[in-house]
Amino acid sequence: MSSISEKNKATIADTFEAWKEGRGSIVDLLAPDLRWEIVGESAAAGTYTRDGFVDGVLASIGRRFSKHGFVKPTNIRLILADDDWVVTLYEARGITNADTVYDNTYAWFMRMRDGQIVEAVAFYDSIAFDRMWAVPPSA
After folding, report:
1. pLDDT at residue 1, as a whole number
2. CA atoms within 13 A on the CB side of 98
3. In this structure, which of 20, 78, 112, 138 has its CB flanked by the most CB atoms within 10 Å?
4. Which residues contact 21 (CB under 8 A, 6 or more apart)?
5. Phi/psi of residue 60, each to 5°?
6. Which domains does the chain show, CATH number per domain?
7. pLDDT in tens, 68-78
């Protein structure tokens, strides 16, 4: 494994562990020129800039969990790195404002530059996601 791969893998691993423990978030790594794609036909599918992803998708998700805190990784199953690309397979959980459990498995393909994510392609169970998205957001 190249030193770039090792560094990028460690950056993602450290960030996911901090997020899992409530000490950080993936937002900490998002580059200003980020391009984030959510694949599929879920309610949030599409391609976003950093602001669109953070202020639109992540903020909207957060408003559906504000009563109990945000969705967090519960099990980081795999982190692979190949130079500037890092792939993470993980499970996440949260309790919605409607007191329902949201469980999902995510696969994120992230391209790194200088310790930041500049491009990502995300996959997840869109049925579980849309069920969570249907929970009314807090104001």
Report:
1. 65
2. 11
3. 112
4. none
5. -65, -40
6. 3-133 (3.10.450.50)
7. 989 999 999 99
